[in-house]
Specification:
single chain; about 250 residues; alpha+beta; 5-stranded antiparallel beta sheet; binds biotin
Length: about 250
Amino acid sequence: MDWQTIRLDEVDSTSSFLKRNAAELPHRLVVRADTQTGGRGRLGRKWSSPRGGLYMSLLLRPAPEPEVAALLPLVGAYVICRIFTGQTGVPALVKWPNDVIVPGGKMAGILAEYGGRREPWLVVGFGLNLTDSPRIDRGGGMPAEAWSDYGVPPDPEEAQSFVLEGLDRLWPAGEGNPLPAIRSRVERLLWMRGREVRASVGGMTLRGVVEGLDDLGHLRLYGPEGAAALDSGEIRPEPLESPTTIPGGAT
Ligand code: BTN
């Protein structure tokens, strides 16, 4: 089944637009806007959305199983890493649970939001800095970077096609859990793998070495208290170093 697209010039947030209207809109609808006035990221952060970037949200209705819904941002981040590195030759990594980082900072973020009581739906929003990297903190202490800092970026329409094609390839017909089949490939691109991090989970802090992922996209850490699998949270290098370190990359 193909994706249908609604293109808007300006909207508060493509994800908010879909959430407001989800009950009347069809499965696999994409809303893309040239600019957003109220772009949102995880944890209530603002997502600055100047013209030139990709701001799109996908409506999945009915929603996939909650476990699969939770790991789609990770799969989306992997798709973007592959496209970016394939086109520029520059390493990009998946920052668990939902970001794409390039040597100088964060280039993309993905936000999945669940809703609908009787008929659950999922809205997955993608934000990619293609030409502009606003100098504001987009969360986690990461500076923002744009694709254009590394090469000629696709235009937003092309970027939309790349992302949707990549997603369809890894998750055909949007069925089942796509992660087990690609887990080891995603792990190879996992930021801070084999290194020590500090994880903030709710109000708690946990230290450990990033071992990888499990099939549900949980982050596997091994620390002084043993093994842990995190289903949400945020990680930072421990001890604190440049938050954008890409081993082997041109940081
Ligand atoms: C994050 O990094 O915290 C996720 C950022 C997600 C931003 C995108 S832009 C399109 C869609 N609309 C929004 O308001 N947010 C998402």
